[in-house]
Write a structure and sequence with these properties.
The complex is a heterodimer of chains A (about 190) and B (about 250). Chain A has about 190 residues and is an all-alpha fold. Chain A is built from ten helices and no strands. Chain B has about 250 residues and is α+β, with helices and mostly antiparallel strands. Chain B is extended. Chains A and B meet through helix 3, helix 4, helix 5, helix 6 and helix 7 of A and helix 2, helix 3, helix 4, helix 5 and helix 7 of B.
């Protein structure tokens, strides 16, 4: 009965420690990384590709990419969780685009993978209370705004592709995307620096 | 564009959905470590990562963890006994473990091979799509081609093909390896005006490379195709001397 409590109280090293060990090629650190983020990465990729076997392959690729490129992440200031989720999403979108024969330059998404961009982020951004706030903010959007955001994030569509998919003028879709992003920013308090 | 004008496009950039010219402008600001745009994009990447966590919960198979660890050479460890129990258990289960480990190694090997095979298949699919794009460009009736480096034995040599409807294909040989953190970037250079970025690529270990920039290209106004070495995030304009310049004027097909 006490075991779960003891496990919960066990000191869990933070991201900097984990990143440092990954940089030293400690395979046990990769196991810990998977235990921390594997389920979220899988859920995200599955939402995009909608095939469990492919999702597992892409999760494996995601973790191997982190393993192979972690030396580019700042050990002290880097946010490995956000970086990993970005890689996971980009791998899934890349797969979706190539499977649908609409392979745009993969740089479109790859350029946001660069580990140096994942610095100085808030700790624990993937914690359940934070994700609940994001879900709540998404639910406050209108149906069209939410659909546009989901097409952009989970299907990797450009605004022109969204307009085609939704059968709406490009200008209308751009307005939905812009207002959705503004609403999310306001709700989450993630103000863009002036 | 200035930082103020770019702020509304940070999120689209983070989603890979920004369109031109904002995408190139933001990339340029990031490349020069813009003190406004770098933290701005970092903040929206943070939000984007949180969006990822809103996906409906799903649980991968238990074997996925083993597969991932096996792919970096880790044998799975299923139990964690105290030292005393470990000794007892080890003594009593030695034979079983011997057999089990052997089977596990074989299983891990199979996982590794399966993962490699799937990776190869996926790479092959992507490569096939790329080759189809390349064939469409090479075989197009309106395709124009130009050679480069032909008169010199060691520097890069090869050909470029431009098709107004299909895009640009570059085939190069003798490319030196790029330094760590650098990639090749192709440019479509108009007769007048600034070069337009046409994608990043890496050469093969043997120095060869094939790069396709699909999409429409105005051949009449294009003076050359060039390649430079740039930071791996890309540049909006060349920052180094071109390694390859394939001039089009002298090369009607």
């Amino acid at each position: 009965m006490l075991l779960p409590l003891l496990l919960a109280l066990r000191a869990i090293p933070g991201d900097p420690d984990l990143v440092e060990r990954l940089r030293k090629r400690d395979p046990q650190a990769l196991a810990e990384l998977y235990d921390r983020y594997g389920r979220q990465a899988y859920a995200l990729i599955l939402r995009v590709v909608r095939d469990a076997a492919i999702a597992e392959d892409l999760v494996q690729e995601t973790f191997l990419r982190v393993w192979n490129r972690v030396h580019g992440l700042d050990a002290e200031r880097g946010s490995i969780g956000a970086w990993l989720m970005t890689i996971a999403r980009n791998r899934a979108i890349d797969y979706l685009r190539s499977a649908a024969g609409r392979e745009r330059n993969s740089l479109d998404v790859e350029e946001t993978n660069h580990p140096s961009l994942f610095c100085d982020m808030e700790q624990g951004i993937l914690a359940s209370d934070k994700t609940r706030r994001v879900k709540a903010a998404m639910e406050k959007l209108s149906t069209n705004q939410r659909t546009a955001m989901e097409l952009a994030y989970f299907e990797g569509l450009s605004q022109s592709e969204m307009a085609e998919r939704m059968g709406q003028p490009l200008g209308t879709v751009k307005t939905w995307v812009r207002t959705a992003l503004k609403s999310l920013r306001d709700e989450l308090g993630v103000a863009v620096a002036p | 564009m200035n930082c103020q004008e770019l702020q509304d496009y940070y999120e689209l950039f983070a989603l890979g959905a920004a369109e031109e010219p904002e995408r190139t402008e933001i990339r340029a600001h990031l490349n020069r470590n813009c003190e406004v745009c770098v933290p701005g994009v970092q903040r929206v990447l943070e939000t984007a990562a949180m969006l990822g966590a809103t996906a409906p919960d799903a649980v991968p198979s238990r074997k996925l963890r083993e597969r991932i660890l096996a792919s970096v050479g880790v044998e799975p460890r299923r139990f964690s006994w105290s030292p005393v129990w470990a000794v007892v258990a080890a003594a009593s289960l030695a034979l079983l473990l011997y057999v089990g480990n052997r089977q596990q190694r074989e299983k891990n090997e199979l996982y590794r091979e399966r993962a490699q095979l799937l990776q190869s298949l996926r790479s092959a699919n992507i490569e096939t799509a790329r080759l189809n794009e390349a064939f469409a460009i090479v075989n197009g009736a309106e395709t124009k081609e130009a050679s480069f480096g032909g008169a010199r034995p060691t520097p890069p040599r090869g050909k470029v093909f431009l098709n107004p409807a299909q895009g640009v294909l570059l085939m190069a040989f003798n490319l030196p390896q790029t330094p760590v953190g650098k990639l090749y970037e192709m440019w479509v250079v108009p007769k007048t005006g600034k070069p337009v970025a046409a994608g990043m690529f890496q050469s093969q270990p043997d120095g060869s490379a094939m790069h396709v920039r699909p999409g429409q290209v105005d051949i009449q106004s294009t003076g050359a195709v060039a390649v430079t070495v740039e930071d791996q995030v890309g540049a909006d304009q060349p920052t180094t001397q071109p390694l390859i310049v394939a001039a089009l004027d002298s090369a009607p097909r």
